[in-house]
Amino acid sequence: MKRTTSIGIIFLGLIVFAWADTGEKARARITASADVVKDIFNAPDKGVPLSVLDGTKCVIVIPDLKKAAFIIGGDYGRGVMTCRTGEDFKGPWSAPIMMASGGADIGFQLGVEGTDVVILVLNDEGARSIMKSKVKLGAEASVAAGPVGRTQEASTNEVMKAQMLSYSRARGLFAGVSVSGMTLRVDGDADENLYREKVRPQQILKGEGIAMPDEAKPLIAAIQQATAKAAELEK
After folding, report:
1. CA nearest to 121, candidates 151, 149, 97
2. What local confidence, expressed as pLDDT, does residue 68 receive?
3. Least enclosed by CB within 10 Å: which of 50, 88, 108, 135?
4. What is the pLDDT of residue 156?
C-alpha cells in the first residue's frame, strides 16, 4: 500500500513538473492578469486616473497574491509585467515578462488572504531597475498608494515623487494600497518555460526573436486601449 502511494505521489509530481515545464502555469498567470486589468482599467468611475495611465512606462499585475504562513507578516505572488518598448519607453507594449514578488503585507491591510495587485511604473529609472535585479519597494524604489477615480489627478507630493503607484482589488473592491516592503524580481524560470529558451528581460522588451504568446494578446490589448484613451483625453 505504501509503495503504491509513493508511486502515485511521484507520478503526480512528474505531471505537475511537466505542466510547469511546458509554460502552462505562466500562460494561466497571464490570462488571470488580463482579467484583472480588464476589470480595473475599464471601471467607469473607480478606476485608475487617466492622467496616471498616460504616463505609465510599465504595468505589473500580480493576480491573487497569497499570504505566506512561513513569513511573518508577508505575502508572496507570481505576476506579469509589460513595458512600453523603445529606449525612452514610449513605444508599443511589450510581450510579457514574468515576475515574482514577496515580503509585503497586503493581505493583513485588506483583511483577506488573497488579493489582486497592480503596480504602475511611472518613469524610466523605475522600469530599468526592476529589469536589472530584485528591488525592494520603498527602499530601492519609491512607491505610493495610487489615487482612484477616472478624473482624479495624481497631485499629492507623495504621489508625484513616487516611481511607482500601487493598487489592489479584493472582493470586488478597488483601492490604492501601500506595498512598501514588497520585493519584485524577474521570474527567469517562468520566462524560460513560457518562451522555451533562456531570455533576458531586455530581449523580451526589444522583441528579439520573441513572439507574443496568444494568451498575452487580451492583456496587451486591454492596456493599449486604456492608455490610448488616456493619451487622447490628455491632449
Report:
1. 97
2. 56
3. 88
4. 54
Instruction: Give 94's DSSP letter.
Output: P
pLDDT of residue 23: 80
Provide the H-helix boundaries in 42-156.
Answer: 50-54, 106-110, 124-132
Q: Can you tell me the distance from the alpha carbon of 64 to that of 198, in angstroms, rounded to the nearest whole number?
A: 26
CB of 27 closer than 8 Å to CB of 194: yes
Task: Kindly state the DSSP code that residue 171 receives in the 8-state scheme.
Answer: T
CA nearest to 122, candidates 68, 17, 195, 48: 48
**How far lies 156's CA from each of 65, 140, 153, 161, 185, in Å?**
28, 21, 8, 9, 28
pTM over 0.90: no
Question: Which of 105, 83, 79 lies closest to 92 in space, CA to CA?
Answer: 83
pLDDT along the chain (235 residues), means of 10: 45 39 83 91 75 90 74 71 91 95 63 78 91 88 83 57 87 80 92 92 88 94 89 70
Q: What is residue 5's predicted lDDT score, i.e. its pLDDT?
A: 43
How far apart CA 110 and CA 46 sit, in angstroms, is 17
Cα–Cα distance, 50 to 169 (Å, whole number): 18
| Residue ranges covered by each domain of the chain | 23-234
Alpha-carbon distance 82 to 210, whole Å? Answer: 13
